[in-house]
Amino acid sequence: MLLEQKEILNTEGTVEYIESIYDSQNVLSTMYFPNTKEIYITFNQGKTYSYGNITEELFKKLQSAESQGKFVKAEIISKSKEFPYRKEFKLYQSELNEFIKRVTLKRIEKDIL
Fold first, then answer.
1. 3 vs 73: which has the higher pLDDT
2. What's the pTM value of the predicted model, to 2 decimals?
């Protein structure tokens, strides 16, 4: 489930990228760059991969999917010829802990509201 989304604007006032965090067993966060159609997906173990040729429509389907992990596996990872990928980096444990804390706080906020 999508917990939070932030649009980061460039100096011209258009969207540079969209950062999202999820309440998901597999996907922790995404950063989507609409101009280059590239997405960075950080998984719950802290590994981050980039995928190319991701349309805005596909990104929106990912955000609204019942399970982001299942969606990524079925619609992006399994189609590696269509969506080329690259392993980018792995978060340090302290960075991963901060993300997990953020997700937990957002989850609590949603439950309260």
1. 73
2. 0.87
